[in-house]
Design brief:
The complex is a heterodimer of chains A (about 300) and B (about 260).
Chain A lengths: L3 H18 L19 H21 L11 H8 L1 H33 L7 H14 L3 H11 L4 H10 L13 H25 L3 H9 L4 H29 L3 H7 L6 H10 L8 H27 L5
Helix pairs in contact in A: 2-13, 3-13, 4-8, 4-10, 5-8, 6-11, 8-10, 9-10, 10-13, 12-13
Chain B lengths: L2 H26 E2 L4 E2 L2 H7 L2 H34 L5 H13 L2 H11 L8 H5 L4 H24 L2 H10 L4 H12 L1 H17 L2 H5 L5 H9 L3 H24 L16
Antiparallel strand pairs in B: 1-2
The chains are: A mainly alpha (about 300), B mainly alpha (about 260).
């Protein structure tokens, strides 16, 4: 409507001038006035100043040199530095592992709750708890796991003293790749439960009955009906979990300091640190993160659209 | 209940409950002989910094909620009523904070509003301006989605026309007709925002502010039992916010807005 608006107003200015002053009660039924746009200006102005502009500054900064000229040097430095490439690989691996494992476990738990025969009170309890746990990330979560499975953690000591098994003498450590995955699952599984439960509700009882009437067993039902219907939702949710883990900073920071080499941690070190050889490096690293997350979000949106066909 | 349901739910419950119980036991320990008492909690509540940072985080939450609602309620209303064509753009902008996570947002904000060229220095120096400007952005996905669901559920065209044909001005329509109808959605978004801001660490720590989460991190470097106690208190705050959400009828089972982004 943008380009047409002013011209239209030119023709109709006398007829609608009253509405320009104050939109009348039938405003929604009539032709929309250009002045209606004013109503959304505050939001767009805010989003521009504190979301779009900062993002643009990061994206542009990734391609700037110290004097403000344009260069691809920063990005190529990221690509050609072993440590940074490794950080991307580790970040992607942790996100993949926790997205797939969290997705699978979350799906199994959500299905256990929604299927017939499970007591009704379990579902609201689980979803409320999931709401808490999905939002309980960061420093407190890291410390809760250190108190549990750290070198002096309660469970570590229990295993050591009562079962004679100290996990730290058998290659386990909370402050490694495995440990970070274990902690991330604490918010990944609940997120999966929250996202996938509505899709599981979309599986109609009639479909299962129809399948049974035609002589299908459980395997037939899942192979030909359940899984094909659910698959876009499941993959979409896993992609969402991937982005969720990929952008997490606080949990890994509080858990490992910098012992596990992750992209957000390197960006954080560069902001606070004085070790910068290249001030635009964190922007180049951030640019890479935005690319990875944007790709996964687009994938998520496409899959969500496909999944929603079955949810109405 | 089938066997597999029992197995998965039991395993899941164990995984989620054990760290909480262990943290509780850990926080009750003290000293070298690991005797159990409440001294860590005593230390915490007598620490001046605890109350100071807790209060700061709470005030930041309230400020964020107010600004976010003042910004988004009229916008969501207006877009649903008059500019449905803008909806995809607003949806895109309100989901963008997931694509530009806090760690990247803070890089941009620190560079942009560093007190030299683009913004006065007081903006950077005060948590009430710098942090809140970022937290409002972080709240967009939760608050807007909650409001959007609220506006979809009511017939705002009929409500607006009814109100106006009775002679009500816009302010009355918005304040006394629309607002009461989306109160649950607004409160739902508010409680989610509360949970997020009370736990936000990334931006606060990198912009060098002392909020409640950065205080927990600081305590951990010298007093681990107190840090465990604080972690449990923080969990309690998130829990309270979610119960609030449930109480206003925006339970996470019904609304996907509760699906959080990890910090």
């Amino acid at each position: 409507m943008g380009p047409k608006g002013p011209r239209r107003l030119g023709h109709l200015v006398t007829a609608e001038s009253a509405d320009v002053e104050r939109p009348g009660p039938n405003g929604s039924g009539r032709r929309r006035l250009p002045l209606a746009w004013l109503g959304v200006v505050p939001f767009f102005a805010y989003a521009f100043a504190f979301l779009l502009l900062p993002s643009a500054v990061v994206l542009i900064g990734a391609f700037q040199d110290g004097e403000g000229g344009y260069t691809t040097k920063n990005v190529s430095e990221v690509i050609h530095t072993h440590q940074y490439l490794n950080a991307y690989r580790t970040s992607i691996e942790i996100s993949l592992v926790t997205a797939v494992a969290g997705g699978l476990l979350g799906l199994l738990m959500a299905y256990a709750v929604v299927r017939a025969g499970t007591p009704r009170w379990i579902r609201p309890t689980l979803t409320t708890f999931s709401g808490v746990a999905a939002n309980f990330a960061g420093v407190p979560l890291a410390f809760a796991f250190i108190a549990t499975l750290g070198t002096l953690g309660i469970v570590t000591k229990f295993l050591d003293e009562h079962l004679g098994f100290n996990p730290y003498q058998h290659g386990f450590s909370l402050f490694t790749f495995t440990g970070v995955c274990l902690v991330y699952l604490y918010f990944q599984i609940p997120l999966m439960i929250l996202v996938i439960a509505p899709a599981l509700d979309g599986l109609r009882v009639e479909w299962r009955e129809a399948s049974a009437n035609l002589g299908g067993n459980d395997i037939h039902y899942w192979r030909h009906i359940g899984l094909p219907v659910l698959l876009p939702s499941i993959i979409g949710a896993v992609v969402l979990l991937f982005g969720n883990a990929f952008s997490a900073y606080a949990t890994a920071y509080a858990l490992t300091g910098g012992a596990v080499n992750l992209v957000p941690l390197i960006i954080g070190q560069n902001i606070g640190g004085d070790v910068l050889s290249n001030p635009h490096l964190s922007e180049a690293l951030a640019f890479g993160m935005i690319v990875v997350i944007a790709v996964s979000m687009v994938l998520y949106a496409l899959l969500q659209r496909r999944a929603s066909r079955w949810m109405r | 209940m089938s066997v597999s349901s029992v197995v998965w739910l039991t395993l899941g419950t164990a995984y989620f409950v054990i760290p909480l119980v262990a943290t509780l036991l850990f926080s009750l320990q003290s000293g070298k002989n690991f005797s159990y008492n409440l001294s860590a909690y005593g230390q915490v509540i007598h620490d001046h910094q605890f109350w100071k940072t807790l209060r700061l985080s709470f005030v930041l939450s309230v400020e964020t909620i107010v600004i976010s609602l003042v910004l988004l309620v009229p916008t969501a209303y207006w877009v649903h009523l008059k500019l449905p064509r803008l909806r995809p753009y607003i949806e895109f902008l309100t989901i963008l904070p997931f694509v530009v996570p806090p760690i990247i947002l803070v890089v941009g904000l620190l560079k942009l509003y560093n007190g030299t060229v683009h913004a006065p220095i007081w903006f950077l120096e005060s948590p009430y301006t710098f942090l809140v400007s970022a937290y409002v952005v972080l709240s967009f996905p939760y608050v807007y989605r909650s409001l959007d669901a609220g506006f979809r559920a009511i017939d705002i065209h009929t409500l607006t026309e009814a109100s106006q044909s009775l002679g009500a001005p816009w302010r009355t329509t918005l304040g006394r007709v629309i607002l009461p109808n989306i109160r649950a959605a607004a409160l739902g978004g508010a409680f989610l925002t509360l949970a997020i801001v009370m736990g936000e660490f990334t931006i606060a720590s990198l912009a060098l502010f002392s909020t409640f989460p950065t205080y927990i991190n600081l305590v951990n470097s010298e007093k681990v039992y107190e840090a465990a106690a604080l972690s449990l208190i923080s969990f309690g705050i998130t829990w309270a916010a979610m119960l609030g959400l449930l109480a206003v009828g925006g339970g996470p089972g019904r609304r996907r807005a509760a699906a959080g982004a990890a910090d």
